[in-house]
Structures are given as structure tokens and as C-alpha cells.
Design a protein that fits this description.
Layout: H1 9-21, H2 28-40, H3 48-51, H4 55-68, E1 72-76, H5 82-92, E2 98-101, H6 105-108, E3 118-121, E4 130-134, E5 137-139, E6 144-148, H7 156-159, E7 163-169, E8 173-174, H8 177-188, E9 197-200, E10 205-206, E11 214-215, E12 222-228, H9 291-305
Parallel strand pairs: 1-12, 2-3, 2-4, 4-7, 5-8, 7-12
Antiparallel strand pairs: 5-6, 6-9, 10-11
Length: 317
């Protein structure tokens, strides 16, 4: 008697699907179609709001979308400034100057010694307040971070610490999801993928219970992105207007200029309203009577209504 080999759960599911479709899975046209799709990697609809932008515009869109998803972003002009930006984030939230990071060379080369941060390396076991990761890429269309798992960036750092800090290079900000998948295939090779590719948009949150938004429901309650952009210029270094030469006077206002006027002051040329006349003595409000006078009047009214000579009323049994 020949025993039928037992099928795994996966094989049972696939066999059920094939029976419902009336196929065996060995048909040449079907296998050819699958092979072609895997080889060509066709993309879906690409949003124009990201694909039509320059690299600098994509970075600005990424920051806008990330902040709209409740993430915070600090932009620095060099990687050497990243540790200081991370320390500033921890201070702003009254957190201990302690972080855990992966073994990513991009993180290992940062000048951590220039700060007072205590840095440990390895995966998180859930007792870390802040974890630091290096992003594989960012997506401008949604402000999403792409995290590739591995010893360099353990997946546990993405979800277990209460505060997730991600270092991202501006050059790694892609326009769309499809662009990132192309980068993954280019980095790891055809048919090879990291064990996990996490797409993270904003901190963890949930409003399942009574539509009340709860941050940190299934992961970090805060997501902070340190964006390294060499083209970044600090706001305090920008000149909002040209300096006024010494000794010059402000220009005279022109027609159409908006002037700051006192709303209580009368308009120029308008007649001054007359001052109010003092009230006539007869129009003055008489003061309320004293409490004693009111009580005396009440007593008099009661005496008139109930004379003392009236006999008390008798109640019949």
C-alpha cells in the first residue's frame, strides 16, 4: 500500500486555490507569465506630486509629509552633527542621554564622543527608552522610512523602544515606493531580499477605542528623523532682507502701503465727537434703601394685613 505524502499547510492552501481555478500549476502559459512578471518588475500608477519634483523638492516634500504624520524632523548639514541633534531631541523630551543602536557603519562612524550620550550596540529587548537606526531610504510621496533588517539595524529597534530615532541621508530620499523597490533589488541582487523590510510612516498610534487617538499603541510613541542634507542652511544664517545702509532713513509710505494705526484714534480730517454731557440730577440713580428701612416697611405691611385684634383661626376636629 502506497502512502500519500502529507502536505504542509502552505501546500494545502495552494492546492485548494488550484482546484478552484481548475489548474494544476504546471501549465506552460501560466508559468511563462509569472516568469515574465518577475523579470520585468512592472510598476503601478506613480503619483505626479513626487515624480515631477527635483531632488531638493523631494526632500522638502518628504519632510512635509513626515511631519504631517506626527513625526519630527531635524535637519543637519553633515553627518558629524547627527549625534548633537539626537542629544538635543532627548533633552527636549526630558529623556536620559542613553541610546541603543545597530552596527551600521554609518552610525558607528559618527562622533558620539563629542556628546555626553551613553551608546550601546545591539538589538533591543524592550527596556531601552531610545533606539537609533539608519534608514535604507525615504519616500517623498508619503514621508515614509524604509528600514532593512539585519545586524546593522535590528528590527527590534524599530518597534520596542519608546522613542525611535532614524538617521536618513537626503540623497536616499526617493520619489515613490516603486523607486525604493528598485533600489532594494539593486542593493541585494535579483531574487534576494532582506529578511524584513519595514515601511514606517510616523509613530505608532491607534484610535480603535472610541476614536480616541493613543500614541505608542503598538510601537514607539515618538519618531524623530535626523535628516542629513548638505544643502541645508540654518535659518539663522539666512538674510530675510537686505541691510539698511547706515545713516539712511526709512522711505516714505506709498499709496497702497498698510500702516499700523491706533484703532482708537480718529481718522484724519474727521470731526472730533463731542464729549458726553454730565447727567441731570434727576436722572441720577437713587441709592437702594438701607436694609433696615426695607424691614420696617415689610413689618408695617404685615401689621395692616393681619391686625392684632383678629382672633386666631379655629380648626374643626
Amino acid at each position: 500500500m502506497t502512502e500519500t505524502p502529507s502536505l504542509s499547510a502552505r501546500e494545502q492552501v495552494l492546492a485548494t486555490i488550484r482546484r478552484s481555478l481548475g489548474v494544476t500549476g504546471q501549465e506552460a502559459p501560466r508559468r511563462f507569465a509569472v516568469a515574465e512578471r518577475l523579470k520585468v518588475h512592472p510598476s503601478g500608477v506613480l503619483p505626479a506630486r513626487a515624480t515631477s519634483k527635483s531632488p531638493a523638492e523631494r526632500v522638502r516634500l518628504f519632510v512635509e509629509m513626515a511631519e504631517a504624520s506626527a513625526a519630527t524632523v531635524s535637519t543637519v548639514s553633515s553627518a558629524a552633527q547627527a549625534p548633537a541633534a539626537i542629544a538635543a531631541f532627548l533633552r527636549a523630551h526630558n529623556l536620559a542621554p542613553e541610546i541603543r543602536r545597530g552596527a551600521d557603519p554609518r552610525l558607528a562612524e559618527l562622533p558620539w564622543g563629542q556628546t555626553t550620550l551613553t551608546v550601546t550596540e545591539g538589538r533591543s529587548f524592550g527596556d531601552d527608552a531610545a533606539g537609533v537606526s539608519a534608514a535604507f531610504a525615504g519616500v517623498a510621496e508619503t514621508g515614509t522610512l524604509i528600514m532593512a533588517s539585519g545586524p546593522e539595524n535590528p528590527t527590534t529597534l524599530n518597534f520596542l523602544p519608546d522613542n525611535h530615532i532614524v538617521v536618513l541621508e537626503a540623497a536616499d530620499v526617493a520619489a515613490t515606493y516603486e523607486d525604493v523597490w528598485g533600489q532594494v533589488r539593486e542593493r541585494y541582487g535579483a531574487g534576494v531580499m532582506p529578511r524584513t523590510v519595514n515601511w514606517i510612516t510616523g509613530p505608532s498610534r491607534s484610535a480603535d477605542i472610541e476614536q480616541i487617538l493613543l500614541m505608542g499603541a503598538h510601537g514607539p510613541r515618538r519618531l524623530h528623523i535626523v535628516l542629513i542634507d548638505p544643502a541645508h542652511v540654518a535659518d539663522d544664517a539666512k538674510l530675510d532682507a537686505e541691510p539698511v545702509p547706515a545713516g539712511s532713513t526709512p522711505a516714505e509710505p506709498r499709496v497702497g502701503d498698510t500702516l499700523a494705526l491706533d484703532p482708537q484714534a480718529p481718522e484724519s480730517g474727521a470731526p472730533t465727537p463731542p464729549e458726553p454731557k454730565p447727567a441731570h440730577p434727576a436722572e441720577l440713580v437713587r441709592p437702594d434703601p438701607k436694609p433696615d428701612d426695607a424691614e420696617d416697611k415689610l413689618d408695617e405691611a404685615l401689621d395692616e394685613s393681619f391686625p392684632a385684634s383678629d382672633p386666631p383661626s379655629q380648626t374643626q376636629p
